[in-house]
Every structure is written in C-alpha cells, then in structure tokens.
C-alpha cells in the first residue's frame, strides 16, 4: 500500500468536502468530460465507503476534492476539526483504496501522538 496523503482536517473538510493534494490525481481515473471519478474505499474495520474525487472544470489549478459520500463518512466516524485522515492505494495489486482515521490524544516530547479511530 502506498500512502497517498495524510491530512489534519479543517472546518471545510468536516462541513463540506475533503480538499486533497493535486499531486495524487494520478491515483484516480478521472473522466475527461466530468473531471471526476467514483471510487470505493475500505476503512480499517473493512467497511466499504463510496466517494467521488473531482476537480474544477474551468480552472487552471484543478483543486481536487472528495465530495460524494464524504459527509456521511465524517458523520459516521464522528470526525472533528483537528482529526487526521490517511488515504492509501494498493499500487501493486488490485488498485484498491484504504482510509484510516486518527485522533490526537496528547503530545509527547513535543510530538503529537495519534490513535486510530
């Protein structure tokens, strides 16, 4: 599994959509017209989630976001601002995606300590 990105969630990520780095667009097979791709993700418990990654159609900078299915995931996982998500892709096998959620529990020697949630 290759880690695509790790992100501490912002208010926009919690309330609307998850902004993701442009550098990971290679991991999705975006439709040329819609500039979007639906994909399935498994969480650490094995539950499957349906998401959509899309970009702006008429903008030089694509600014990709995960929208469809994201708000339900946030609600079901009880995610809050400051929590972290990590997205992985199996680049050698079946191209499946995995997602991990984490909560910051405390600092130790100046470093955040995260617990999978």
> What would CATH call the architecture?
Beta Barrel
Please tally the helical runs, counting DSSP H or I stretches of 4 or more residues.
2
Radius of gyration (CA) equals: 15 Å
Superfamily (CATH H level) name: DNA-binding pseudobarrel domain
Number of strands: 8
Task: Supply the CATH class.
Answer: Mainly Beta
**How many strands, which pairing sense, and closed or not: the largest β-sheet?**
8 strands, mixed
* Total domain modules: 1
Spans of at least 5 consecutive residues with low confidence: none
Fraction of residues in β-strands: 35-45%
Mean pLDDT: 89
Write down the secondary-structure element order. Answer: EHEEEEHEEE
Morphology call: globular
GO cellular component, one term: nucleus
GO molecular function, one term: DNA binding
Pfam families: B3
Keywords: DNA-binding, Nucleus, Transcription, Transcription regulation
